[in-house]
Design a protein that fits this description.
This protein has 2 domains: 63 residues; 33 residues. Helices cover 91% and strands 0% of the residues. The protein has 2 helices and no strands. The longest helix is centred in the first third of the chain and has 58 residues. It is elongated, with a radius of gyration of 30 Å. The protein starts with a helix and ends with a helix.
Length: 96
């Protein structure tokens, strides 16, 4: 009978150890995933900053690469359209 309890105790200890290890692994994986998300967000911010810098240079006439110019012109057109639509919203609100 004592062998049964010794074996049961050993199994319980093994299971608890396994659960503890899995929990630690899960926590570590989540931490790594969080780090990865943070790094990706930082990259996105940097890419946005690069884009803003190129667009600012385009507005000053300092960009001569046609690929950048095409993209900047598209942005410029959308900015104009956004401005028109914002004015439209103001008109609609004033007409109330």
């Amino acid at each position: 009978m004592s062998d049964f309890f010794e074996e049961l105790g050993k199994r319980i200890t093994d299971v608890a150890s396994d659960i503890s290890k899995r929990t630690e692994d899960t926590i570590e994986v989540q931490k790594i995933k969080g780090d990865i998300r943070s790094m990706k967000r930082a990259n996105e911010r940097n890419l946005l900053d690069i884009g803003r810098m190129v667009y600012d240079k385009f507005q000053k006439g300092e960009v001569d690469d046609t690929e950048y110019i095409t993209l900047c012109e598209e942005i410029e057109k959308r900015e104009e359209e956004i401005e028109k639509r914002e004015e439209e919203i103001v008109r609609i609100k004033e007409d109330r």
